[in-house]
Design goal:
SH3 type barrels; 2 domains; 39% helix; SprT-like family protein
């Protein structure tokens, strides 16, 4: 994914980026956790994109992919013909994070407004221009040459009715991961979401959580 981002996305864009901020560089790295993100260090004039190992693992597991924003974007915006596969998820993740880089360079990333219309205009252009397809092909080729082919079979969305049947008011649940894990008790169930009242460090807060993101709270 790092090589794909550099070779397919950064290479054709770097001249334009450096016109906005001279001497800008990009560092792609793999993190040990789930967190996947873009950030910019103004002191070094360096963009950094981190791809989390646990994110990559989760996108190989059909039961885990439903909660990812990348999967919802593929389905709802028709990227890759709306087909969710592990290969499409990983290629789209490269495009998603690179779109944040271009959004930042364009001055359209604001506190509290990250996934805004400017971001999705950029992401749509990456897909519409063929950049996303090129990233997908490159990622598949690199994986094949490393003898680590990425699954490309369609992943069906989960049946939310079956998932909802697992939960009842009063159940202790957790959602999120790592330092961002949140916890609480279900106080209301809806068609696709549950209203969760925070407990422990989350006391005093309420969350409306898609059922696909919930798991049993363990000690």
């Amino acid at each position: 994914m790092c090589d794909t981002t550099n070779a397919i996305l950064w290479s054709p864009a770097q001249q334009w980026v450096r016109k906005q901020i001279p001497a800008t560089t990009l560092l792609c790295r793999v993190g040990s956790g789930q967190a996947t993100y873009h950030r910019f260090d103004p002191r070094l004039k360096q963009h950094q994109i981190t791809y989390g190992r646990r994110m990559i693992m989760a996108k190989h597991q059909p039961d885990a992919v439903a909660g990812w924003l990348s999967g919802r974007e593929i389905r709802q915006r028709g990227y890759f013909d709306g087909e969710v596969t592990t290969l499409n998820l990983l290629a789209h993740t490269c495009c998603h994070e690179f779109a944040h880089l271009l959004q930042h360079v364009s001055g359209q990333r604001y506190r509290g407004s990250v996934h805004n219309r400017y971001f999705y205009r950029i992401l749509d252009e990456l897909h519409g221009s063929g950049g996303a397809d090129a990233a997908r092909r490159h990622l598949a080729e690199q994986a094949e040459s490393a003898d680590m082919p990425v699954p490309d079979e369609p992943i069906q969305p989960p049946d939310t009715r079956q998932l909802m049947a697992k939960w009842s008011v009063g159940d202790a649940v957790a959602f999120g991961a790592g330092k961002r894990q949140l916890q609480g008790r279900i106080i209301r169930t809806n068609r696709k979401t549950c209203t969760v009242e925070g407990t422990g460090p989350c006391s005093g807060l309420r969350y409306r959580v898609p059922v696909v993101l919930l798991r049993v709270l363990t000690d």
